[in-house]
Amino acid sequence: MTIVITIMVETSLNREKVFKMLADLESEQVERTSSTSDTNKFAQAVCAFSNDISNTGRNGFLLIGVNDNGALSKLKSSDKLLQNFGGLRSDGNILPQPIMSVQSYSFDEGDVIVIEVQPSPFPPVRYKGKTWIRVGPRKAVANEMEERILIERRSTNVSMFDIRPCIEARVTNIEKEPFLNTYLPRAIDPGLLENDKRDFEEKLAALRFYTSQYNSPTNAGILLLGKKPEYFIPGAYIQFVKFKGNGLDGDILNEKKFTGNLMSLLPRIESFIDDAIIIERPVPISTLQEKTVKNYPNWAIRELMMNAIMHRDYESNAPIKFYQFDDRIEISNAGGLFGKARPENFPNENDYRNPVIAEAMKVLGYVNRYNRGIARVKRELKENGNPEAVFNYKRIGAFGVVVYDALFEIIGIEYKSEETIDGTSKETIDGTSKETIDGT
């Protein structure tokens, strides 16, 4: 019997080929282990196969349930084990995400679980901040020269927008302090940083924010760390508008443009959602009891906004639109479903238009686990009493989501705006006012 879990890489692997690998010695393409719980060992192997330091172009295979001498360890495969191994791809510890599959093959002496890994087009790939490679049949942490080889190889695989060079920009357009003092310590293992003698440009290049071939930052470098990213990428901002009523024809009650690099923009948009969007109100549930209900759950709106930032098409000049109406919020961005993600499999399948930006947001803590956010958004909305979010993913070149206000749905409250004596506005709910952020 053969059990297969989500395959992300083209494979011609079959039971006969697995049997032959059992008889061979470990090599640059094959590693064996009898353990089913050594997550670090598995992840290091996946990382090393992804980097393909010898540039063989061949897939690597981690055989689980096999002793060092090639004999089977009488492993009994299960759905849980397969899911755990498949989780190595999306748990965010291996960056950028590996291209891999997990399959199980049964033999008389036991089962063999095979993790097949394709060489990454965007090396170096790191596990918890370390670049692992294979040196013959063993694993090792890449030295400075080996990392440089991987970085140079990546330039031949440039296809994604965020990895391409921003030809007009120079390293002087990058903010140095946030990269060195905030991003780098989160992205690279602290022990490795202590002995890292590379110059600023080389450190940027190691994380895909600079290309020495063009002496320019990449688009990802400008988006994440640029001094004026909108100068080079005109659509790189978020436009917030609050309308009176439920349509675009309503008066504009508040308007705000969020600009700047992602290192500064992400915490500002997060604070804005908490301080200016989320409202709490006690709602009666019986004669003597009431509960506090939010119009929107903080985490859900934050997650939807982070998804828009991570997945948008930055080649479009259109900004991310963040519109608030009396009864709902609408978030939309240029760029529809990408790659493997299609209308028939959304949201169970995902892919990344901006792999470097996705990695950076994971490093900074704005994305926790890949491909889990939508499920949690749905749960948070349901628990807060909001109707289900409505996703619009069938339009070509655009993606949108509508989230309806729980307070408006539950008790029919309309949010009104009243002008204060100093010209600022306040939210009014049954006569109770809450001043919005920045006094607007």
What does this structure look like?
Helices cover 30% and strands 24% of the residues. The chain is α+β, with helices and mostly antiparallel strands. It is globular. The N terminus and C terminus are likely disordered.
Short description:
This protein is an alpha+beta fold and 440 residues long.
What amount of the residues lies in strands? 15-25%
Helix content estimate: 25-40%
Number of strands: 22
Report the principal-axis shape: globular
Count of runs of 4 or more consecutive helical residues: 14
**Average pLDDT:** 86
Contiguous uncertain segments of 5+ residues: 1-9, 413-440
How does the helix and strand content classify structurally?
Answer: alpha+beta
Rg, nearest Å: 25 Å
| Main sheet characteristics | 6 strands, mixed
Strand order of the largest sheet: 13-12-16-17-19-18
Distance between the termini: 64 Å
Helix/strand layout:
Elements: E1 2-5, H1 15-23, E2 30-33, H2 39-51, E3 60-64, H3 79-86, E4 94-95, E5 99-107, E6 110-118, E7 126-127, E8 130-135, E9 138-141, H4 144-154, H5 176-187, H6 190-194, H7 200-206, E10 210-211, E11 216-217, H8 219-225, H9 229-232, E12 238-243, E13 252-258, H10 262-277, E14 280-284, E15 290-294, H11 298-311, E16 320-324, E17 328-334, H12 355-363, H13 373-384, E18 390-392, E19 398-404, H14 406-411, E20 416-419, E21 425-429, E22 432-435
Parallel strand pairs: 2-3, 12-16
Antiparallel strand pairs: 1-5, 3-6, 4-7, 5-6, 7-8, 8-9, 10-11, 12-13, 14-15, 16-17, 17-19, 18-19, 20-21, 21-22
Helix pairs in contact: 10-11, 11-13
